[in-house]
Write a structure and sequence with these properties.
This protein has 182 residues and is of the alpha+beta class. Helix content is 35%, strand content 25%. The chain is built from six helices and eight strands, in the order ββαααβββαβαββα.
């Protein structure tokens, strides 16, 4: 099966690798100043296209990348969640970004759990991190719901060079232990 046929299902969500047909939803999200405030800032549509191509390329190069997330009930695009490790990144990350009109509905932890289960089942990662802007309290809450904790301060590579981030995370063993009790 091609990675582009991959689909993860949760109770309320469908996660799949992005495709060209997702550009309108992605570009609208990337243009939302509040949604993008902790994700590197807004992008015009032309840059959002390049960003989409980067995520699709990550799937080709690494066998993983962000999933685009859809509500089962409506088919609506609600965000992007998943494994991410570009060159120079501070670790093997599972990150998230949810559309503002879907904030507070529990979609980020629901989708992130599915993505963490998938990536740890498919790849030999020994740790999952979440790089979080120090002012992003909602993302810290999501990380805590996933069982992650603050590990250290770090910085991101270009184009975010020098931007301080909190690195939250947990080991594969910690994730496996928490899954055994779920």
């Amino acid at each position: 099966m091609s990675v582009f046929e991959l689909q993860l299902d949760t109770d309320r969500l469908i996660l799949r690798p992005p495709c060209a047909g997702d550009l309108d939803d992605w570009a609208a999200f990337a243009a939302d100043q509040q949604a993008m405030r902790h994700l590197g800032g807004t992008m015009p549509r032309t840059v959002a296209w390049r960003s989409l191509a980067t995520v699709v390329g990550a799937w080709q190069l690494q066998g993983f990348g962000f999933f685009f997330v859809f509500e089962k009930a409506t088919g609506a695009w609600v965000g992007r969640v998943g494994p991410w490790q570009p060159e120079g990144w501070p670790g093997t990350e599972v990150g998230w970004g949810i559309k503002r009109d879907r904030w507070g509905q529990g979609y980020a932890p629901e989708a992130a759990r599915a993505a963490m289960d998938w990536v740890l089942g498919q790849h030999p990662w020994q740790q999952v991190i979440h790089s979080i802007d120090p002012d992003n309290l909602p993302s810290k809450a999501v990380a805590a719901k996933l069982g992650s904790r603050l590990l250290r301060m770090d910085t991101l590579p270009a184009p975010y060079a020098g931007k301080p981030v909190e690195i939250w995370g947990q080991s594969r063993a910690q994730w496996d232990a928490s899954n055994a009790t779920r």
